[in-house]
Write a structure and sequence with these properties.
The complex is a heterodimer. Chain A is of the alpha/beta class. Chain A has a domain at about 25-200 and about 310-395: 3-Layer(aba) Sandwich (Rossmann fold). Helices cover about 35% and strands about 15% of the residues of chain A. Chain A contains 13 helices and 14 strands. Chain A has helices at about 1-10, 15-25, 145-160, 170-185, 200-215, 225-230, 235-250, 250-255, 275-290, 295-305, 320, 340-355, 380-395; strands spanning about 30-35, 40, 45, 50-55, 65-70, 95-100, 105, 110-115, 130, 135, 165-170, 190-195, 330-335, 360-365. In chain A, helix 7 crosses helix 9 (about 275-290). The N and C termini of chain A lie far apart (about 45 Å). In chain A, about 50% of the residues are buried. Chain B is α/β, with parallel strands linked by helices. Chain B has 8 helices and 7 strands, in the order αβαβαβαβαβααβαβ. In chain B, strands 3-2-1-4-5-7-6 form a 7-stranded mixed beta sheet, with helices on both faces. The termini of chain B are far apart. The chains are: A alpha/beta, B alpha/beta. The interface of A and B includes residues 363 and 382 of A.
């Protein structure tokens, strides 16, 4: 059983250099912006120099009209359709992206960047601060979803792509999609915000706060200076991940998968070992997470999601964000997603209707909770494929051969 | 509904009739669009079509076909659309299933410059005869559901519908009575004749003139 091996593995201080390697020198493509191209942040400061790590799949056509930007979620990264360099796992959206899949790499040029504030190659708290030669840590400025999108726009300028055929993403990725549509409507031909919302609810912020407190309560966190001091707040980050992971599932699915089954035993042990299967499963989720994610990045990215409130930039009237938009939208939600429930998606549709935008909206029946957008859901595939095919036809892209 | 008549080419005859009433290049909302067949037909004719449908299966099928359809309820969600958002709002064979037909009609004429409504005519002679002779709710090819299983809660006759138009401030620009297979009864006749012999009806409505400029909320 995998769990037993993982628990026994030696977790003495992981070499901090390995983490820095990926943060500064990712295995994916990377573009470095010098002092002449600073990233202006909502916090009122500039980030310069900075870099963006990204992966591309497929080929850009001569008209540069077939590019799809895929935005990853909180703990995702740019390795959306190939093997992850640290974990060896398959790409996080292989259910939707690939040859012949709904986001068809034979027809579209797919770009997946790592967001600003993350830790897999785009500048973030684990990256080296050129002013000090040490990792940024908490001196890294607090970034927002809009900052992420601003940086992505600079990446597209660098790649010479003026208009994206589509922007797609789920959860935090969906927030980026909505921000793209609001900030750069002329650059987004179609938008696929999935399992997302235009703002975090109080409950969502509360869950994130618990996760952040878990990280900061770990004595090895050292006020964010763990990389410099050679420690590793892996326990706090693992607990944060365990809590968050529960919000990504549904009560029904957890019960269906685990129920009250014991892990490899017939009776309770009357101790605090992982007696139940679900406990063992969560511990495994926590342990594998800390191998590939930076604790400070978790603080920064959850913060960005909490700060996101699209209507706030438009006098609190969401409809104004999309007024007159030329973009076509396909909004998708899942019935058992209680983190970003269907009511959040309906609010988006309502605002789009008020702005007379062209919108499709589908709610998919599933018990897999928020994480459903990452899983193999035939209805989701059918909808994404149908939407992109029809948008492609309207744009003049060639139909599937 | 009785198996709808189809023209060569496969399109339903009643859909073609509705499509003929719509000018090309206009913007249309199909309320209760089902599997999107009418919307597809309209889009082939250069119309910018949108849809709203109650059933999840219908919506997902439409969206998978690339149609701009959202999941929603005609009784509650039409209020979300702004005034004059559409050139035509279509309500196909759905009026009798709405909870508040007058509100639905008034909303349709608010959000669209014109409305196209088709419905089964409860005044047809076969229905009157069944009620008279059988003393029970009629079951016909066109209305096959038993009264306790039917989604249809607001039946009306062509005469009733004309009265609703008066009450709701709608001008009747065009009307057609259809046979059970959706083909028009092409005869010149007064309304009482259609009320007896038309199994279904299609009406093209517009707003009556307002006395002054409409106040914007």
């Amino acid at each position: 059983m995998v769990e037993a091996q993982v628990v026994k593995r030696d977790f003495a201080a992981r070499d901090p250099q390995s983490h820095l390697r990926e943060a500064d020198n990712p295995q994916s493509e990377v573009v470095r912006f010098g002092r002449d191209k600073p990233l202006k942040l909502d916090a009122g400061v500039e980030l310069s120099p900075f870099q963006i790590a990204y992966q591309t799949y497929g080929t850009l056509n001569p008209q540069r009209s077939n590019a799809i930007l895929v935005c990853h979620a909180l703990t995702g990264d740019q390795y959306v359709n190939n093997v992850h360099p640290v974990t060896g796992k398959p790409g996080w959206w292989e259910s939707i992206i690939g040859s012949g899949k709904p986001i068809d790499t034979d027809r579209y040029f797919v770009i997946c960047p790592n967001v600003v504030g993350a830790c897999m190659g785009t500048t973030g708290p684990a990256s080296t601060n050129p002013a000090t030669g040490k990792p940024w840590g908490l001196e890294f400025p607090v970034i927002t979803i809009r900052d992420m999108v601003r940086a992505q726009a600079m990446l597209l300028d660098h790649l010479g792509i003026e208009q994206l055929f589509s922007v797609a993403g789920g959860s935090m990725g969906g927030m980026q999609v909505l921000q793209w549509a609001a900030s750069y409507p002329e650059r987004v031909y179609s938008a696929l915000p999935i399992a997302t919302a235009t703002r975090h609810s109080a409950q969502n912020i509360a869950f994130h706060e618990v996760g952040r407190q878990a990280v900061m309560a770990d004595p090895e966190w050292r006020q964010g200076r763990y990389l410099t001091e050679g420690t590793n707040p892996r326990r706090g980050l693992a607990v944060a991940r365990m809590g968050a992971h529960i919000t990504y599932l549904s009560d029904a699915a957890l019960h269906r998968k685990f129920g009250r089954k014991f892990q490899d035993r017939a009776n309770p042990t009357f101790s605090f070992d992982a007696d139940f299967e679900v406990e063992s499963y969560l511990r495994h989720q926590g342990i594998t997470f800390v191998e590939r994610f930076d604790a400070n990045s978790y603080l920064y990215l959850t913060r960005a999601m909490d700060y996101f409130d699209l209507a706030a930039d438009y006098d609190g009237v969401l409809a104004k964000a999309f007024k007159g938009t030329p973009t076509r939208f396909c909004v998708i939600s899942f019935t058992s997603d209680w983190l970003f429930p269907t009511s959040d998606s309906r609010a988006i549709v309502h605002a789009l209707n008020a702005g007379l935008a062209r919108v499709s909206f589908a709610e998919i029946v599933t018990d897999k909770g928020h994480d459903a957008f990452l899983l193999d859901e035939p209805e989701l595939s059918g909808i994404v494929r149908g939407f992109l095919d029809s948008a492609g036809a309207a744009r003049g892209l060639p139909a599937k051969a | 509904m009785a198996e709808a008549a189809r023209a060569p080419g496969g399109a339903r005859v009643d859909h073609l009739l509705v499509a003929e009433m719509v000018e090309p290049r206009s913007r249309v909302l199909d309320v209760g669009c089902g599997d999107g067949e009418l919307l597809r037909l309209l889009e082939q004719r250069g119309v910018d079509g949108r849809g709203i449908e109650l059933s999840r299966e219908g919506v997902n099928e439409c969206v998978a076909k690339g149609l701009a359809v959202i999941q929603g309820d005609a009784d509650t969600d039409l209020a979300d659309y702004p005034d004059d958002a559409f050139d035509y709002v279509i309500l196909s064979q759905t009026l009798q299933a709405t909870r508040r037909p007058r509100d639905v009609l008034e909303n349709m004429l608010r959000i669209g410059r014109r409305a196209i409504i088709s419905f089964p005519n409860f005044g047809h002679w076969r229905i009157r005869l069944q009620l008279l002779l059988n003393g029970a709710m009629p079951v016909t090819d066109n209305l096959p559901d038993s009264w306790y299983d039917s989604p249809n809660i607001h039946f009306c006759t062509i005469k009733d519908f004309r009265e609703l138009c008066q009450v709701a401030g709608a001008r009747m620009e065009k009307s057609l009575a259809l046979n059970p297979w959706g083909a028009p009864l092409r005869l010149n006749a007064p309304y009482w004749f259609w009320n007896l012999f038309g199994e279904q009806a299609v009406f093209l409505l517009s707003r009556k003139e307002r006395t002054g400029p409409r106040a914007r909320g």
